[in-house]
């Protein structure tokens, strides 16, 4: 087994986790081993009566991150909008007050930043940012990993957008790191379909370390690290945090590949699936749900139990579906909620039905030659033959909810497909359309060729309407965007606004698209 040589070095990581309800979580992974203290205090006011702290012990330089959750609700009598944190080496005998003094003066501090948090839930306006597909590397000379030419500049643009928008929460909608993104950083293929590698404990330890190194390197890029440590985040995983197309091919469930999945999920729980308001913290799936001001969000997990060739429940379990239906029922009387947002890593609709029908059933010989292995990508689609029944059930639940609450706008936010799009889904019997907005990719520069997109995607240009089996009539709102992009979401009582910020790689400058629901 060969470890990956990334072109960037790892840094001390502190990631702010979205917990909701006035609580803030922290994922902490410094460079070294030993004792560290995280100190948090109101900006400019290191008052001993107002600070919070957490003591960590890291046993090795390559181990897992550790977590702390701070309840900010105790500060409502003296609400502070901006807080500071600092991470510094310490010892068990060191006084927290002494460490606060060191942190406030900057002495021996390894990492620090500031963040905004409200001790009460926002009411008038909720702001969210969404992105997916962070893969900033490419392979040079057939073997060496380098940063993509524009990656640093794009991430700097992204960091500036987030800082200017000041969101309450940032959604990382899957593919937050790639185990197989480009040849030079592809480590999962060293074990995928490689026989009984998993019988050797050293191989399993190596793979666990590579998944951990993936997150640490992908997130250590300065601009990404700056955003992660300044704004509350929630994450969902998709295939590339495991292996390309995970769960869409029968061979994914061979013994060695199942062990690869088990290790990938163990590390994903350390870095991403721990953050966010999980519906079932101890469950097999990591779906999340929360209410904030006038919006309600349900974030689906379509990888943890995914099996395209299973007899039923191929995308999500029956348990997750029931949790979604229960969430909708709970919103029936929640009169303050005016916007429902579902998050799916893969969009409800993108490909034409005939494309999903043909490619998802292609024989292995055709898939491996003429289709160059894209069958798993097509099987990822919600409207592929194996998944359409789940999509139909989800849309039926949404139709029921919209009839019960016709005053609530409904939108689906997604990523995965390395392009950005927007559609109106007109579900038969629903009183209003469902808006689907896809934002992808933030740094990944690989997307379908124009001809393939023209043949395969629903709707060629803005305004095109098609009937899609299992959904209804679908109208395209935005033409396909292939440049790096990120979605800004604003929810007020009377309106939801979606603004797609786009980095134009041909002529580096910003452009944007918007819609209101």
Number of strands: 23
Distance between the termini: 51 Å
Q: Number of DSSP helices? A: 11
User: Within the largest sheet, what's the order of strands?
Assistant: 13-14-15-16-18-17-20-19
Give the fraction of residues assigned to helices: 10-25%
Q: What would the average pLDDT be, to the nearest integer?
A: 89
* Strand residue content: 25-35%
Classify the secondary structure makeup into a structural class: alpha+beta
Q: What is the 3D form?
A: globular
Task: Give the biggest beta sheet.
Answer: 8 strands, mixed
Q: How large, in whole angstroms, is the Cα Rg?
A: 23 Å
User: Which regions contain 5 or more consecutive residues with pLDDT less than 50?
Assistant: none
Write the layout of secondary structure elements.
Blueprint: E1 13-20, E2 23-29, E3 34-42, E4 52-58, E5 66-71, E6 82-89, H1 96-105, E7 111-116, E8 125-131, E9 137-140, E10 144-147, H2 151-165, E11 169-173, H3 201-220, H4 222-228, E12 233-236, H5 255-271, E13 288-292, E14 295-299, H6 318-331, E15 339-344, H7 353-360, H8 364-368, H9 375-380, H10 388-404, E16 409-414, E17 420-426, E18 434-438, H11 450-456, E19 465-468, E20 472-481, E21 485-492, E22 496-503, E23 510-516
Parallel strand pairs: 8-11, 11-12, 14-15, 15-16, 16-18
Antiparallel strand pairs: 1-2, 2-5, 3-4, 3-6, 6-7, 8-21, 9-10, 13-14, 17-18, 17-20, 19-20, 21-22, 22-23
Helix pairs in contact: 2-4, 3-5, 6-10
């Amino acid at each position: 087994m060969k470890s990956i040589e990334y072109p960037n070095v790892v840094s001390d990581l502190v990631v702010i986790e979205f917990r909701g309800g006035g609580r803030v979580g922290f994922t902490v992974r410094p460079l070294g081993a030993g004792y560290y203290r995280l100190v948090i205090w109101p900006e400019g006011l290191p008052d001993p009566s107002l600070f919070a702290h957490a003591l960590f012990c890291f046993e090795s330089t390559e181990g897992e991150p550790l977590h702390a959750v701070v309840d900010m609700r105790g500060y409502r009598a003296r609400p502070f909008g901006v807080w500071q944190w600092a991470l510094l080496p310490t010892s068990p005998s060191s006084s927290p007050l002494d460490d606060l003094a060191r942190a406030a003066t900057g002495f021996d501090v390894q990492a620090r930043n500031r963040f905004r948090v409200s001790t009460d839930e926002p009411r008038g306006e909720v702001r969210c940012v969404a992105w997916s597909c962070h893969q900033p590397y490419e392979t040079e000379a057939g073997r060496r990993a380098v940063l993509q030419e524009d990656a640093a500049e794009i991430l700097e643009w992204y960091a500036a957008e987030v800082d200017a928008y000041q969101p309450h929460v940032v959604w990382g909608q899957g593919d937050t790191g790639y185990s197989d993104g480009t040849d030079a950083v592809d480590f999962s293929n060293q074990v995928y379909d490689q026989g009984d590698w998993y019988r050797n404990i050293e191989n399993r330890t190596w793979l666990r370390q590579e998944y951990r190194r993936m997150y640490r390197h992908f997130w250590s890029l300065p601009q990404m690290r700056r955003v992660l440590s300044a704004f509350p985040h929630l994450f969902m995983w998709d295939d590339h945090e495991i292996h390309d197309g995970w769960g869409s091919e029968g061979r994914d469930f061979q013994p060695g590949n199942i062990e690869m999945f088990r290790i990938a999920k163990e590390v994903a729980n350390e870095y991403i699936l721990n953050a966010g308001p999980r519906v079932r913290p101890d469950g097999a799936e990591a779906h999340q749900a929360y209410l904030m001001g006038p919006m309600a969000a349900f974030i689906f997990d379509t990888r943890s139990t995914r099996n395209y060739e299973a007899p039923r429940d191929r995308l999500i379990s029956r348990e997750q579906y029931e949790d979604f239906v229960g969430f909708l029922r709970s919103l029936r009387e929640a009169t303050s909620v005016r916007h429902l947002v579902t998050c799916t890593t893969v969009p409800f609709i993108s490909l034409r039905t005939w494309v999903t029908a043909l490619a998802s059933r292609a024989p292995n010989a055709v898939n491996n030659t003429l289709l160059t292995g894209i069958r798993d990508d097509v099987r990822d689609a919600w409207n592929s033959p194996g998944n359409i029944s789940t999509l139909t059930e989800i849309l039926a639940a949404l139709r029921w909810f919209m009839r019960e609450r016709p005053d609530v706008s409904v939108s689906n936010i997604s990523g995965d497909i390395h392009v950005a799009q927007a559609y109106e889904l007109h579900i038969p019997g629903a009183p209003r359309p469902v808006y689907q907005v896809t934002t992808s990719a933030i740094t990944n520069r690989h997307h379908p060729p124009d001809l393939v997109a023209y043949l395969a995607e629903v709707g060629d240009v803005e305004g095109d309407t098609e009937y899609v089996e299992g959904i209804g009539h679908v109208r395209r709102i935005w033409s396909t965007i292939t440049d790096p992009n990120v979605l800004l979401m604003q929810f007020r009582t009377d309106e939801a606004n979606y603004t797609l910020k786009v980095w134009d790689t041909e002529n580096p400058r910003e452009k944007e698209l918007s819609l209101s629901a």
